Amino acid sequence: MQRKTIDRYEFWFLVGSQFLYGPETLDEVARHAQKMVEGLNGSGKLPCRVVYKATLKTPEEIEQCIKDANYNDSCAGIITWMHTFSPSKMWINGFSLLQKPYCHLHTQFNRMIPDTEIDMDFMNLNQSAHGDREHGFIAARMRMGRKIITGFWEDDDVQKKLGSWMRSAIGAVESRKLKVMRFGDNMRNVAVTEGDKVGVQMQLGWQVNTWGVGDLIKEIEAVTDAEVDAQMESYRKKYAFSTNDLETVRYQAREEVAMRHFFEREGISAFSNTFEDLQAMRQLPGLASQDLMAEGYGYGGEGDWKVSAMTSLVKRMTEGMEGGTTFMEDYTYHMEKGNELSLGAHMLEICPSITNEKARIEVHELGIGGKEPPARLVFEGHPGRAILASLIDMGGRLRLIVNEIEVVKPIYKMPNLPVARVMWKPEPDLYQAAHLWMLAGGAHHAVLSYDATAEMLEDWCEIMNIEFVHIHKDVTVASMKQQLFLSDLAWKLK
Fold it and tell me: Which cellular component appears as one GO term in the record (predicted)?
């Protein structure tokens, strides 16, 4: 059963005006705002409900509404729109308190100017063209991070942008609640999986803590046969059994039940482990980790808590979408001239949400770690547009790197490769993308998502005050060097 997040949230629609225009105009503003909200909610393009909260006319009303938004756990962000002219000094006190994500929707109620009906009453009511410019100034003057969406509110592209930003905002709100459980430490001598956990909690809200592998072993030993039987039945419903070694599969079920006990007890959303620290565990969790990811948990191999947390957050942002999101690693290249590809995989832990086929449970030697051959899910990722995202610690700041990719059907059967696999063409091409990724410091672990977009993650970075680097078809090594140089200067000045 996938965990539900998005249904818990709503977004408040705050409309700006003032008493200057009289009660009839203000009543009309409220009617228009309510009709717009009903249209947005009925569009099918938004993942969450929009709530028309108020037409705000004084600094006191604005400040109180912002306070209410801050302390309402259901409110994931505010959307502002100035139907008339709302003097922006009225917003200073409220905006200085704002702790929720903020979108400025620049639109107007009417699509067309009514040729014969237009008069000064119409002009006094429909002033978004300059009312929103006044509103935009104060956010710029206060150096506020925000999303600006321009266009007619009934148009698909506007509604899709708003829906995408809502998902980014949910990622920001959920980030403040995220707890990561590390079973053991990072893989020895690896640099990129390390990071400043205190700094990350201060900036992103992530609580990253370690539990001993011995604690997990005790939990595994306490799992009952009945719990294992129930987990096996769940496997049978979702996956195809391509092994007769049921005892090995049952051990994975036992590991999964034990980890879920931990997660539910401690409120955990993401986890990491490493094959270097298994102690008396018989198998590295493979199938167990994959099935937990399919339920919405984040995972990071070799103790990589940053990619674990990001996998969890991207899954939450894209909840209800069907493309899939997973922990991923560039593993090896296909360097055929003109058809260069990257083969992504991991030792075991790729999420089955990214396949259109029924994943197979198989048992094979791991070839590393010195433990029993573990059960795992084997499948291919489905073709389609996707992104790779890597969060890295640059020392004093975080950087999120996103590469646009095209996942293709693997060009080989690879019958002797006993792991889930994905094959893709990165933009601009394999060699330039690899150059740009390494230039920016991207990790060997990443989040692969068919549902998240670069814009969605850029908006999340804007909210969380994180540097964003976008690798796409039009980026060159020269332009990337320039961007990184200027970004380094700007972030050091901050």
Answer: cytosol
**pLDDT, tens digit, 9 for 90 and up, residues 135-186:** 999 999 999 999 999 999 999 999 999 999 999 999 999 999 999 999 999 8
Question: Going along 185-254, which residue ranges are E strands?
Answer: 207-211, 240-241
CA Rg, the chain, in Å?
25
Strands, E assignment, 131-202: 147-150, 179-183
Spatial CB neighbours of 311, under 8 Å, sequence gap ≥ 6: 270, 293, 298, 299, 300, 325, 326, 327, 351, 447
- Listed in sequence order, the residues at least 6 apart from 7 whose beta carbon sits closer than 8 Å to its beta carbon are none
Q: Which residue type does 17 have?
A: S
Alpha helices in 80-155 (DSSP H): 92-95, 120-125, 128-141
List the one residue out of 301, 386, 392 whose CA is nearest residue 345.
301
Rounded to 10°, the helix 156-175/305-317 angle is 140
**Residue numbering of the annotated binding site:** 302, 329, 346, 445
pTM to 2 decimals? Answer: 0.95
* Pairwise CA distance, residues 32 & 92, whole Å: 25
pLDDT in tens, 130-143: 999 999 999 999 99
Q: Measured between alpha carbons, how far is residue 132 from residues 16, 80, 110, 138, 397 in Å?
A: 9, 9, 15, 10, 33
Based on the structure, what is the number of domains in the chain? 2
Residue 90 has pLDDT above 80, yes or no: yes
Contact 292, 352 (CB under 8 A): no
By residue range, what is the domain housing residue 303?
179-493
Do 110 and 248 lie in a common domain? no
Strands (E), 156-308: 179-183, 207-211, 240-241, 270-272, 298-300
Taking residues 412-422, report their average pLDDT: 96
Whether residues 365 and 482 share a domain: the answer is yes
Residues at the annotated binding site for Mn(2+)? 302, 329, 346, 445
Residue 1 within a domain: no
Other Cβ atoms within 10 Å of 349 Cβ, number: 27
CATH number, domain containing residue 10:
3.40.50.10940
Beta-bridged to residue 420, according to DSSP, are none
Is the pLDDT at 197 greater than 80? The verdict is yes
Domain contains 399? yes
Q: How confident is the model at residue 340 (pLDDT cuts 50, 70, 90)?
A: very high
Contact between 29 and 84 (Cβ < 8 Å): yes
**Cα-Cα end-to-end distance for the chain:** 44
Q: Which of 135, 156, 175 is the last residue of a domain?
A: 175
Residues in contact with 424: Cβ distance below 8 Å, sequence separation at least 6, in sequence order: 341, 342, 344, 386, 405, 406, 407, 408
Please say which residue of 175, 193, 214 terminates a domain.
175
Secondary element (H or E) of residue 287: helix 287-294
10-59: per-residue pLDDT in tens? 999 999 999 988 899 899 999 999 999 999 999 999 999 999 999 999 99
Q: Are residues 163 and 243 in the same domain?
A: no
